[in-house]
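seq:
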Amino acid sequence: MVLRRSLVIAPVMALALMGCQRAVPIVEGGGTFAGQASLAQRGAEIRRAGAGLGWIMQDQGPGLMRGTLNLRSHQAVVDIPYDTRRFTIRYVTSSNLDYGGGTIHRNYNSWVRNLQNAILVQSGADAPRS
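struct:
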């Protein structure tokens, strides 16, 4: 009887703990721009997209933008290398987001996905549905 109860309770507890999991693997964002534009125009699209979501966007040179998002006591910093056709969003550093060995607070991936979608919309592309 005790063994049977343990076999039922253990999986339920494991699922409950997984639902509370705050750290998840870091996911890179990115995509392909719509249409044709110059490198400067692509940089402007990225800057507008980030600013619209509260990111502080800084040019790091041709084809590279750095984005910083400050929310309450949390900070996320990403690099966005880009050319005239595509872009990638890469983790740089963070504060108070439980970063460790390739995992981070689950909200980080949502922020990156929102930034990715906003960049695509700025370029005229349809944002992917999640």
